[in-house]
Amino acid sequence: MGGPPGGPGVEPDSTAQVVTQSHNLAPRSHDAELRDYRAAFAVARAAMALLGPDGVVLAANGALGTLLGTSPERLTSLDADALLGIDGDPHAQAAFHDVASGRRDSLRCTRRLTRQDGGSVRAELTLSRTGTRPLLLTVEDVGERDTLREQLRHLQMHDAVTRLPNRALFFERLAAACEAAPGRGTGRIGVCYLNLDGFKAVNDTLGHRIGDELLAAVAARLLACAEPGGHLVARLGGDEFALLLRESTGTGQATALADAVLTAFQQPFDVAGHRLAVSASIGVVEREAAGTSATGLMQAADTTLYWAKADGKARWTLFDPERNEHRMTRQALSRTLRQAVERGEFVLEYQPLVALDTGELRGVEALVRWEHPHFGRLAPGRFIGLAEEDGSIVQLGRWVLAESCRQAREWQRAYPDAALVVSVNVAVRQVWDSDLVADVAAILAETGLPARLLQLELTESAVMGSAGRPLQVLHALHEMGVRIAIDDFGTGYSNLAYMSRLPVSALKLDGSFVQGFRSAEHPNPADETIVEALVQLAHRLGLTVTAECVESAEQAERLRRIGCDTGQGWHWSRPVAAEAISELLR
């Protein structure tokens, strides 16, 4: 079989076809391509212009003419400096000439261009090189975009209910005020941070719609107070508002603004047919802006607002560094109380209880001290209240009880004839939140201390009116053989008739009664009469009486004459370590 003419695999006339096709694919003429380019340039929706290397406008399209309010022809031959508004801007001119000379490929910037009618348009300009062709300038109107962005920011930064600046905007302005350059203005800053008193009741009884209308009315009054001084008012959330004094002239200006707000709130608010009375508590902070942070300032304001609430509401309270330091110390102590017991940071001291008739040592009161690693040795008044608040008094009290009994047992072994009683204070919360009876029984069994050598002290207000669990605890301890003493007697109910029905062994007269015994030259007959009557009644009920806070021999002698059994105070000894008590027993 033979192939077609021309050899195997070659189609007839194939070469002629290729030549013909190559002639059909010949490039279009340069003039035709340029016409298409100009047509696209003219009808483009993007505003554009062609610039020569010297910065002269070679051509502008209709979109650019419309944007600038003129015809494209009138833009031709203009100098780019005038068109772009970079006259007098050396930096912008230098950047433009860098692109024109080829030192950089493109330039993008935002400028405000002047329109033919005298108005202006904010535009983003892009100038780029196109090889050997003219420079291409594109102009995009960003005014609408900026306006939309501003509208969105306004919505994000303002409260929908009151139309006031919200928390985000307030903190932004506050931070800017704190960071203002030193030496500008007064250099001071102030904040009035307020919370509405009783607003929750309005929401709960009348509903959130009425509550929102009330918030809007509150905002209007706050603005009326703040606008004369040019102060910023913001709603931080809920029923909390803040007023910012960016150029405060001093504490007086801030407190005067707080007074104006309180005065404005004295008039009731008429809301949706309801007349509502609402007051405000205000925390006022005023200080130098230098060295102040927005966070630190608002923490101080929040603390001061809390003080205003605690002090009775419907008032302003000025930030007090000393009061704040005390609060910070309390917080620091409260955070570490439980861990301090576990770390063994507490120690006991003992104050003697002395027989007034013989001067013999009858017992000791165990007093706890906190050896704090930062604040040093702390007396009970600094931390017992905190321990009662957070419940760590149970853990601490158990340790005090165990350590006291252990030490008392050592004294008993060393001095068996002394029969020294150790007296330990018990908090009310220990009675309620722990099994005190089981704890005492376990500790006595563990240490081997006889129950008769342990005395537990409770305050008068803790045992008066006792019923249920507290009364059961007292009776169980008494049956165990433990002595019960009433501490600070005379400061509470002083109901001896009721006391007679309790398993109480001793009364400890509050130190305030002993104060009248301090001056032998000017004694207080009333104090002596009261103490004498209490002692006689206590003895008739079978109770012993201890006088606290005895500071002189004269006081001790007069207390002895009227029948007090034992005394305690600096006249004999301050609270001392266990070793010092051992010395007294030798």
TrEMBL record:
Gene3D superfamilies, sorted: 3.30.70.270, EAL domain (3.20.20.450), PAS domain (3.30.450.20)
Domain GGDEF: residue ranges: 187-321
Every EAL domain range: 330-586
Domain of life: Bacteria
PANTHER family membership: BIOFILM ARCHITECTURE MAINTENANCE PROTEIN MBAA, DIGUANYLATE CYCLASE DGCP
Protein name: EAL domain-containing protein
Organism, as annotated: Actinacidiphila acididurans
